[in-house]
Here is the input.
Amino acid sequence: MRNPFTLNFGKVPTQYIDREFLIDELVEELTSDDIQNQCFMLSGTRGSGKTVTMTALEKRIADDDNWIIVRLNPTRDMISSLVAKLYDSRDFLTRFINATVNLSKFGIGVELTSVPPVADIESALEIILKEIKKRKKRLLVTIDEVSKTQFMREFASCLQIMIREDLPIFLVMAGLYENVRELKDDKALTFLYRSPQYDMEPLNRTLIADKYMKIFGISQEKAYDMAVMTKGYPFAYQALGKYVWDEKDHEMTSSVLAKFDEALSHYVYEKIWKELSPKDQWNMSFIVKKESITTAELLELSGQKKNEFSQYRARLRDKGLINVSTRGVISYTLPRFDVFIESQQY
Here is the structure.
């Protein structure tokens, strides 16, 4: 058999632990007759499964012919891209635009001599959405790796207007914790604060252990030890599974552990580390000294005052690197991040 695990980001692996409850909740919200929300955000660290979850959601929605699904690239003019992709998405939209909407100014469709060209791309989108609504269909737009770019701000502002016009457009976007937060903090996009945000929580360790036990034919105890090592981090689940699969008799060996650490470092941790400020890195070097550490212990080790540390605590929390849900206690969230940080100090 081929190795059922993969390190490719975004692609749904063969051995995938889906976030069934989250996807069910989103599907229910999107398909409800009583629409409460039309914009949803998925946030998490790198490798936490945001893109895979969004892909799985798209596949579920695609089973319903009443939906049109469009993926947008956040580095391009998204309003123009959406109109162009809608033109190509369904025959009825292509026919409708070619017969009644002159989009020649934007290089879309055929030029209609009897109809003056639409001057504004937002107006064109509104006309198309009204046709989608008339046919009792809905549009789902998905955007991955969102951040506060000018294109994203323009698209979000346009979306807000379309929602106020009661048009059937829905948005699901995914991004890093800090990028989603920065977008929501934009004063012109306050409506995003009312939009549901789903954080990519760690996968259930019991589910991971059950998968490992069945795939490798190992004991429940060994499978659970492997699951604990992943800390529920989706990329770690895939990486550890991949290298154990390649090992003779599917055993956990020092070679597997070395490859596991290298994969975490190369594909995820080096990028995360470079995005941290020197002071953030310095604080993390103390936090990872124990699986969980009290704030008092940390302050004593680092020689900081509480008010001095609080801003870094908030930043590291917002990046998803630490868990501070237990009052006065800090723990790091990423598997073997302590090993990675130790390697950076030599």
In short: The mean pLDDT is 92.
